[in-house]
Design a protein that fits this description.
The chain is an all-alpha fold. It is built from four helices and no strands. The longest helix is centred in the middle third of the chain and has 24 residues. It is flat, with a radius of gyration of 38 Å. It starts with a helix and ends in a 46-residue tail after the last helix. The model has no long low-confidence stretch (mean pLDDT 76).
């Protein structure tokens, strides 16, 4: 890319203009219109909103106390229902619906190129 872009001076000038405009957009020109300044303002506004919400939610009405109820461990533990990832015992089928594999060997005799396979003997 470097070789083809800078062979023509107009493409090189376009590249420099694009880079400079990108830098001016991100860093800014000092007027407070850059992407960094915008992000700083948004973060400051979000902090003010979060602190106002936390102050309003932390206030409790007079005379009311906040009590936390104890939850026993049995309610906190998931019963883990669903697919069992443990491997099946060797030699046993994976589930009751599946059949065990059959040890059957199928031999197809071929007489050579251009001939049809032999019919099975009955």
């Amino acid at each position: 890319m470097r070789g083809t872009m800078f062979r023509n001076r107009w493409f090189a000038l376009l590249f420099v203009a694009l880079v400079l405009s990108g830098v001016a957009r991100i860093v800014g020109t000092g007027n407070g219109d850059s992407a960094i300044d915008l992000a700083k303002r948004q973060i400051a506004e979000q902090r003010r909103q979060a602190s106002a919400e936390s102050l309003s939610s932390s206030e409790t009405p007079a005379g009311r106390s906040t009590l936390m109820a104890f939850t026993p461990d049995e309610e906190l533990i998931d019963p883990a229902m669903g697919f069992d990832p443990s491997p099946a015992a060797e030699g046993a089928p994976a589930s009751e619906d599946e059949e065990p594999p059959h040890d059957t060997l199928v031999v197809i005799r071929h007489g050579g190129p251009g001939t049809a396979p032999d019919a099975p003997d009955q």
